[in-house]
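Notes to self after the call with IL:
- keep both proteins in one doc
- input above output, always
- annotate only the second one for now

Protein 1:
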Amino acid sequence: MGSLARLWFVLALPFAVIMMIMTPPFQTPDEQNHFFRAVQIGQGGIVGRKLNWRQAGGFLPEGAVSYASSFGDLPFHMERKVSWERIHDRSGGSWQTPNISADFGNTVIYAPMFYCAVVLGIDLGRIAHLSVRDSFYLARFCNILFCVVVGALAIAIARKGRLLIALILSLPMTLSLDGSCSQDGALIAAAALTAALLSRAQEAPFQGYKPWLVLGLMLGFIAASKPPYFLVLAFPALLMPRVLWRQTLACAVLGAAILFAWSIFGVHPAKIPFQIDEGISTPRQFHFVLAHPLHMVQILSRTFHLYGPTFWREYLGTLGWLDTPLPHWFYRTATLFLLIGGFCALAQLPRKAANRIALLRAALVSLIVAATTIGVCLALYLIWTPLGLDHIEGIQGRYFLAISLFAILALPAERRAPGCALQVLALAEPSILFLAFGTGAFATTEALLARYW
């Protein structure tokens, strides 16, 4: 493991645990429903169920449902605080209670792959006869371990944009998701590792079928967990030499099969329409998109014009239920560090002009990242936005963290030739990461303590 990966691991693991402790239970976006989904998977319920025409979820222990609901008074109420006495309530909820119906329609359709660490923590707690509270914190800790180990591995094996990967994985938004029961932290870590594997395969194509099988599985898991990310399946064919067309085609077919299978057998049985009371109809929205493509361009443009700065702040770190902003100086500083990370990656450009194929590949990677970003927005227009509205509702900046990691594939590969500039750059990267992480840790600690304690 390289020095940058070791440094990130040493910084990220303890601070993610600290964030986990400072963030009260179920105080990240939809963490309650993610917890319910993880409990359901741990009980063997890989596929959810419709409870009625407006609700979907499953049957979970009453103690788990009651405990998860006991912190519902905190989101969006900045005046309400918590105490150690409340968090360390003696009962903590019991698993030995009858099952009752639980509605978690927005997470029941999620594929199980990136819940594995959370499910492990919950099941270990149940086996050890821990309370629901203790099992919940154990699940958070297992998720942290998974995300930090996978993230460090991604930084270690990447051949492009290592510092940029480390900086994105160090963002308060990323670390907050790592320390929750959400699937998003594991998804972001897996995206980093997949991008790193692709960058490594570009430099030295994999031998044998096993690495390609792993790559196809990871791409399929990402696409199944976030269907608007389906374009990532094209990366192997786009980046690898033509002689590897069989391997890259196999990756795409395997990934598409996973996405298709989960859509049919996992999503369809439990999918319910969202926002029915708001008059939202996905078929009507879809017809409108097809009938008015140019108008959709205007809607996208207006959405980013109105809310672009908000999306960027959420991407960097707006904690809690997006009700806990960080200090203004942090957003400027974090943006600067990301720009420095991009500059360090571009400094690897070869002295000779890059060939046309390399430039074309970089342009296509950028196009896929941009198209996926638009795809996320269109998906939320279809399922979450009232028809006729002049902007898209429901977009959160955290939705773009995973896809942004694939942007490193458009960067030049690291040069190994000796040179004073490259040696200075290699020495500077750990210092840049340390400073960036330190500023984020300070801002996060200040914001969480002021918000919840």
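Protein 2 (the one to annotate):
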Amino acid sequence: MSYETSALCCCEYYDRNQERSHILTCCCDCEDLDEAFESLITGNQVSQKHKKGILLTMQNRFRIPWKGGAKQIAFDAILPIVIIPIMLLLASISLWWTFFSFTTVAIFLLFISNFLIRAVHHTKFFFVWTLTSVIVLYLIFEFIVIPFLEILLEENIALSMFIFGFVICLYLMKTRIKSISSIRESEAENGTSGQYYLQCTQCSICQLKIPDRDHHCVWFDCCIGKHNQCLFVLAIFFAIIALLYSSNLTLTSVCHPFTLYKTILLPDDCSEVYKLFELGLSFVAAVYSLIIAALLLVLLFHQILLISLGITLRDWTRLPLTKKLCLGLTMKRPNSRGICQNWKIVMCWTKNNHSISNQM
């Protein structure tokens, strides 16, 4: 369909049907929303089709006025930028608000994760949540915790290096995905892709064919396979160290610390942190860091177990509970080459290693 020749005003745009529209239509004319509202007031369940239609309509119409036509903004990607600062600000009011804010956000994440993954396969919500958490926590540490004058320069540099290591690993993970895609395209043109991609699996989220695919990490917005699993483990490791280190530095600055061993301090009494806004905000940021670190620690141990066993996350999820309780040691593992060889393949992955593993 051809576009109209007249220029768009700052509040007009072309929708996904290539029809001229206005951002005021965001407030009305949504068939899926009407159907969903009717289902709610009649006591019926809202169908998955209408849920997906509402989300797609919101993504298409959520725009801001801009010169030359309204610009589209990903609605799901904006949510973390709004939710995380509000959560931390509310949590800094009192202990009750801390519990209420974190619990509410946890329930919201459980609900929205299932909905977004089904409705929008390649959503940026989780990846933006990760980036927003890193940026907000680092800013709180640098501009609120550091002025307490309790943090040494070398401690701040060490924390920055851990965060830098996490960012580099995350960047290299995504770079290897692009490298895999370019290799596949070149080999497809030469007619030699069949041997190399014998064990290729197509990801239903990013629509890429990944060799020896393990899973798609929505929080890092990246497919994980043998080609970048080592970087994935390193990224988790650096994130855990940075979160634990920053939370300890923060808590020993805003709480009454005690000496564990020589210069190693641990927080003791944090009963007065809610008396000042800066103390409260720093405290809840540290608690948020500890929660994320605990979850990542479980993920790290799980990845170490899977690599050692030589199985993928997809294979693990298909195991019965009895074999999971035995840590998968009683299951058949046809692709396992032994613990040392499994780690060698992951740590020293190359195209040639993959071809050799396919022929074994």
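Annotation: The mean pLDDT is 78. The first strand starts at residue 12 and ends at 14.
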